[in-house]
Write a structure and sequence with these properties.
The structure holds 2 protein chains of 2 kinds. By secondary structure, chain A is an all-alpha fold. Helix content of chain A is 74%, strand content 0%. In chain A, helix 3 (56-64) packs across helix 14, helix 4 packs across helix 8 (150-164) and helix 4 runs antiparallel to helix 11 (194-210). Chain B is an all-alpha fold. Chain B contains 14 helices and 2 strands. In chain B, a hairpin with a 7-residue loop joins strand 1 (43-44) and strand 2 (52-53). Chain B starts with a helix and ends in a 7-residue tail after the last helix. The chains are: A mainly alpha, B mainly alpha. The interface between A and B is large, with 99 and 92 residues.
């Protein structure tokens, strides 16, 4: 019996690490290519390791396209997106979680049902609206749709779950002391909700950082482009600058991976919360 | 007015005030666009001149548009051969992770990392991996004597390429399944062991029913996402110096064709009609899955 379970555990590890290796290989390919010369890239059979560590591709990546400009644009959009989401979401979640008002449940169901709405239905009227407001080619369409679009329902749902877990007695005693609803929110409930707010902030950052469809539709002016849109410039008519492209893709990905390692737990918690009833 | 009514009023006012950002968002960014989109779908509209009422002409045109059917077929293809195998695969990995293996958090991190890569960066990386001549995948296939498909140029291999890449991004699903598995009460398995149940029997009659609410959630979210599949397909065609849709329109997905109609051809009316068809399809599929769920989803305590 004992032996059998040891065998099983070894088998599990074997499969898990094999799959893990398969999952890591693309990262290795990305990373190694970013240090190779053209001769090392276009060679059969594969040359796994570059002869020496060259930073040429990274230098070229930054020089070939306005990489710094795109990075700055992307950061700016991400910061604005996160700021609004973090400010607005807990307020709404508080209303849905801690104030027992008439029609609350119906409105909450309405909010959840918007999760089913495909973005394609709203994108054209929103584009027309932003066009009329002269906001095309600015970051506002991206930022405002992140704040108020379907994403809001996800975020509110997540934070509301968290608020529901905070004991009602905490608010009750403050209410007896005559505290207003807003004071209870700002001074008692909000400080306790930091983990949930950090989680939605992270997910919003992740989304804004990598978003492709939004910038593709709203940003035509190359000065306003984000990294997602700008990377295509490494692709030329008859050849692709794979070295610099992989270097740029590495630079594009690394900030997120660094953030992930700092706040791993929050990520995992956030993901599992959305999946719960 | 009684004191109770007054309190109720006060609560209503406070409640509405707190949820007002959402109410604003709902009215301006959802409800009014939905209504406008319905209106546009009944018009001819190119952004420059005001919409011209055409009744159901866009819908009639859609019924005859072979490219629309093709894009719908492509979308269903990656849903059936992508979404469901990927769910099964994520569950398999989650089952392995759930065996109390040592180093769980390391494995979890490895499976989760790919989901952090921005869609465009990931797509470009996979295009390089799938490069017919110098890509890693074909070199490995060649080395073990297997055929080396021209993944990105051959219309038959483009959708499989995207599906293959999709497996790399299943980390989120794995983690959600793992959370569901960890919630299954241990005593069920203990009781089954005493009765001498086989591993397959336990999986089939304890695990699967216990995690069925998660499966329902993942299937519904997956369907909604799959019908809006866009970025990867768009990048795969564009970065290959090919027009939207790729060779023989093999990766012209529904959302991509809709985008092309709206923002390349400026056929806003037609694209809105397409959006409404998409909405109806997603809605019906969701209802069907929900209705069927009473047969295969079990909530704790019911049984």
């Amino acid at each position: 019996m004992q032996q059998r379970s040891v065998g099983k555990s070894i088998a599990s590890h074997l499969i898990l690490s094999l799959v893990g290796l398969l999952f890591l290989t693309p990262f290795a390919w990305l990373f190694l290519t970013s240090f190779k010369t053209e001769d090392e890239i276009f060679v059969i059979p594969i040359q796994w390791l570059p002869d020496r560590l060259r930073w040429d591709n990274y230098i070229n990546a930054i020089k070939m396209i306005p990489f710094v400009q795109y990075t700055w644009n992307t950061i700016w959009i991400a910061i604005l997106s996160v700021a609004g989401v973090v400010l607005l979401t807990p307020v709404v979640a508080y209303g849905f979680s801690r104030i027992d008002f008439k029609g609350r449940n119906a409105l909450f169901m309405l909010m959840l049902s918007t999760l089913m709405l495909p973005g394609q239905v709203t994108i054209i009227p929103l584009y027309v609206m932003f066009n009329k407001m002269n906001l095309l080619n600015s970051y506002w369409p991206l930022v405002l749709t992140t704040w108020f679009g379907t994403g809001m329902a996800y975020n509110v749902f997540m934070v509301r779950q968290f608020f529901n877990g905070i004991p009602q007695e905490l608010s009750e005693s403050a209410k007896i002391d005559g505290a207003s609803e807003f004071r209870i929110y700002a001074q008692i409930v909000l400080p306790l909700a930091k983990p949930a707010i950090l989680t939605i902030g992270l997910f919003t950052f992740l989304f804004a950082w990598g978003d492709f469809q939004g910038p593709l539709i709203y940003l035509n002016d190359p000065d306003k482009w984000t990294l997602s849109i700008g990377l295509k410039q490494f692709i030329r008519e008859n050849n692709v600058a794979w070295g610099p492209l992989m270097a740029a893709a590495t630079l594009f990905t690394i900030p997120i991976i660094v953030i992930y390692f700092f706040v791993q737990k929050k990520f995992i918690e956030g993901i599992t919360i959305t999946g719960m009833k | 007015m009684t004191a109770r009514k007054q309190r109720e009023r006060k609560r209503l006012r406070a409640g509405l005030l707190f949820i007002s950002p959402w109410l604003f968002g709902f009215l301006v960014f959802q409800l009014s666009p939905i209504l406008m989109s319905l209106y546009y779908s009944l018009t001819e509209y190119n952004l420059f001149t005001s919409p011209k009422w055409v009744g159901f002409a866009n819908y009639a045109e859609m019924a005859k548009d072979s490219k629309m059917y093709l894009s719908l077929y492509n979308t269903m293809f990656i849903t059936v051969f992508g979404l469901f195998p990927q769910l099964a695969y994520a569950l398999a990995v989650a089952l392995l992770l759930n065996r109390n293996v040592k180093g769980l958090s390391l494995y979890r991190t490895i499976y989760f990392l790919p989901t952090l890569v921005p869609a465009v960066a990931g797509s470009l990386l996979w295009m390089w991996l799938l490069n017919a001549q110098y890509g890693l995948i074909n070199q490995v296939l060649g080395a073990i004597g297997l055929p080396e498909p021209n993944w990105l140029m051959d219309a038959h291999w483009l959708k499989p390429s995207l599906i293959l890449m999709g497996f790399w991004g299943t980390g989120t699903t794995t983690i959600m399944y793992l959370a569901a598995l960890q919630d299954v009460p241990k005593m069920y398995y203990e009781a089954a062991s005493i009765d001498g149940a086989s591993a397959w029997h336990k999986f089939r009659h304890i695990t699967l029913p216990a995690i069925s609410p998660m499966t329902l959630f993942l299937v519904i979210m997956g369907l909604i996402g799959s019908f809006q599949y866009f970025s990867q397909g768009y990048v795969f065609a564009e970065s290959n110096n090919q027009s939207i849709g790729g060779p023989e329109n093999a990766i012209l997905f529904y959302a991509i064709y809709l985008y092309q109609n709206a923002f390349s051809f400026l056929k806003m009316g037609y694209a809105s009609a397409m959006a409404w068809l998409l909405f109806v399809i997603v809605f019906i599929l969701t209802i069907v899955v929900f209705k069927s769920s009473s047969k295969w989803v079990f909530y704790g305590g019911d049984r």
